[in-house]
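Support request, priority: normal
Reporter: lab tech (M.K.)
Component: structure prediction queue

Hi team, I submitted a job for DUF1499 domain-containing protein from Maritalea porphyrae yesterday, and the status page still shows it as pending. I've pasted the exact input below so you can check whether something in the sequence is tripping the parser. The sequence length should be 248 residues. Please let me know if I need to resubmit or if it's stuck on your end.
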Amino acid sequence: MRVFIRTSGWAIWAARIARPVLPLVLLAVAFHYIGVMTSPVFVAAIFVAIALALVSLVLGLIGYVSIWYSGDAGWREASSGVIVGCCAILFSAFVVVTSAQNQTSTDVSTSPATTPILLEGEVRNDLPANPVNSDLFRLASTREYRVSAAEGIALVEQAANSLGWLFLDQKRSGAAELHNFYESKTLIGFKDDVTVSTRATARLLIVNVRSASRYGDGDFGTNSRRIEQFLLKLDELVEQAQKQSAEN
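Reply from support: The job had stalled in the queue. We restarted it manually and it finished. Here are the results:
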């Protein structure tokens, strides 16, 4: 004789609500990265996924209690809701902690007063950036290289290309100063604006970088980290070029 064991309704609903969370997140990231989904819609989708995960967590916990007292089946279904909800809590905690530990300004520069930004095809000098936090990002500072202007600008373009930046435009400020404007994309698809300014003197090429987020009120240190990464790559390329020049 077959004995029917009822599955807890709470556990069933916990599993049902938890099931679409991961596909929703993956699809949102994919669509945002390729440009099908705008940043505000992407952020809304992530909040919806987190809300669903938290609901599944509550239902899963209630399911545990119900199963314990009733003897119903459904431990696996309830656990799926609890696991998804805990992942959402861990992700939210990670975001909060990362935000607290890193500089959250959405527009930073190694030289805020002299580095413009390109907005809707117009070069803007009237929107000063914030200085990079030198305590957190010690290597994100103005560079001075003993290279010619032509060689230095070529190395700047090479460094930007190696990081996958999309070239947007180039403008001059006088005879000695050149601004290259780029678009950079994060791993989850947020697009940011980057300016690399070079100024040639009699002996040096001075390089400053500005990075600004197009969306959001915080960047979790992304812009400053991007500047630091670019300058370290440029340091490497300049050193290689100088070694090759010395050998020749």
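Helices lie at 9-18, 21-34, 39-70, 75-101, 149-162, 222-247. The longest helix spans residues 39-70. Let us know if anything else looks off. Ticket resolved.
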